[in-house]
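Aim 2, interim progress: modelling of the cobalt (II) ion-bound target.
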Amino acid sequence: MDDTRGRLTKDGIRIYEAADFAGMHVAGKLAASILDASAELVFPGQTTAEIDRRITAMIGDAGAVSATIGYKGYQHASCISVNHVVCHGIPGDKVLKDGDILNIDVTVIVDGWFGDSSRMYVAGALSRKAERLIEVTHDALMLGIEAARPGNTFGDIGHAIQTHVEGHRMSVVRDFCGHGLGRVFHAPPNVLHYGRPGTGPVLEPGMFFTIEPMVNLGRPETKILADDWTAVTRDKSLSAQFEHSIGITEGAAEIFTLSPAGRFHPTY
Ligand code: MF3
Ligand code: CO
Ligand code: CO
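Predicted structure of the complex, ligand included:
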């Protein structure tokens, strides 16, 4: 994959050119549209394999390519992470039941540009406790995006997320992070969802990366199951995640993966 555009900072972070934003918007919009259309696929009795099959078809119908099929041996177009699964849940014959909450994470490649986004859904009725977790997680992502301006640092982003989450007595997962992306899936920097103000690389216009906080109702520790992918909370507490792909401009960050339908909440 060609990844020679723009230039690299001293921290190895690629600075893309103004013209490169257009390709990221197209890829991001496809990922977001697929997440919009996935809402009606989530209901009690549905399997996560069927949701993934439908997502695979949507990517093909759009003339795009899945970034995750074949990635380090992964075989699916989505990760579907239910309840205490933190991330990288593998679609399978698991049947959703009333009240289950799930993250669906989709990454597409359009004309060589990567769009990576994830959102929360509910099968059936949403409990008040799950709704609180989901709202705090989404607010934390958006506060992180607000902190993503030139002159601020990656530590400022992490700090904004961590402060919000811990202020609600929830915890930020430390074991997974956001990442640079553009013409590649995962590039520098590691975007931590916790941190101290003023630390880490300084943001510059032309940086493309994801912010994708995972938040637990209980403790932050995770473990990987024997399938080598599925990450779960060690204490079995409920976990939520939202992810956007963004681009840094002179002003507010551009969100490549905003929902064309204006959706993010699992029930409205
Ligand atoms: N989309 C995930 C991310 O946010 C990565 C999934 S890799 C996979 O970076 F192989 F598990 F699909
Ligand atoms: Co990502
Ligand atoms: Co993702």
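The mean pLDDT is 97. The longest helix spans residues 128-146.
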